[in-house]
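Box S2. Input/output pair 1.
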Amino acid sequence: MEQFIVWLKYLFLGVVQGATEPIPVSSSGHLIIAQRLLGLEQNGLSFEILTNTASLIAICFIFRQEIGKLISGFVRFLLTRKAEYRSDFLFCLFIVVGTIPAVIVAGLFKDRIEEIFSSVHTVSVGLLLTGCALWLIRNLRGRKQDGDLKFKDALLVGLAQAVALIPGISRSGATVITSIAVGMKQETALKFSFMLYIPISIGGLVLGASDIAHDPNRAELAIPYVIAFLTTLVVTYFSMRWFIGIMARGNLKYFAYYCFGAGILTLIFL
């Protein structure tokens, strides 16, 4: 019975990760809150890496056509220099530009950031800040499409993604908000945000593979980890599909309300 309860707890963590990874409410912050409520303590990065990988697989599956088009266009432009592939080529370059700030900050300060900012109160403040940012851009409607992006746009969105390494600051929220703020259309902002998520997540998986391999609890937690992984995979897929619809309708203000409520309740009760 005790083992079954543990499985249920990890099932719940998978639901939390999957539901919150695509949407602008901070999946890392929600996992900290959920683990606090469930009395679970994760030592090391194995669980975070596994669940992020599950979310990555689901998101790559949803954007598989866009990913294929970008890779094809990038390669064809290098080979032919035809103008019709220039937009895809530049978009790929801007993904690299937008990834660099988070890579630098994570490489230099990630452990320090987690040590300083991984408290529940920090998550509360991060949620409130995310809510404020969502509220400020709720009515913006940009015009920039894929081919209209500039180096400055990619760099600013990349800097926002680096700031989102702080638990409670939503990665998708920070990148979508900044993308909209620099004038991108909703669909371009969504696409650019989640294209940036892919290299960051792959990098985290590669760098964190040793954490998984040397996790002293991997045998004991094998089944709970598998449950959380599969749950995250399925829930991320449906959450991402739902968020795509939300972005198409421009209803980001509802996420602002949620962040305000979650941040205030967490400050009061946790």
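Box S3. Input/output pair 2.
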Amino acid sequence: MPELARLIVLVIDWLALPVGVFAFVNAAVQRADAYTAADRMTKPAWLGITGGGTAALLLFSFHNIGMMFWIAGLVAVLVYIVDVRPKLNEVQRGQRW
């Protein structure tokens, strides 16, 4: 692999980890009843999903045989950030006009 491509892959690999940490911490600080009110899975379920996803991002790498697990971990934390987090914020803030 050319040196530039190797550097790009390494940057992608390491930038994903803070995203996973953010998702896990955000899931941890949300109120448990907000998950139910937002019609999403429970708080422990999302803590497990984001924690497992973050662990996969930490343990596996984007550029080797564990790439499948790394991608699954990234998808898990991105689903939380893109789908669940906005609903939780909406429920906790209430309707905005």
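Caption for Box S3: Residues 3-93 form one domain. The chain has a mean pLDDT of 92.
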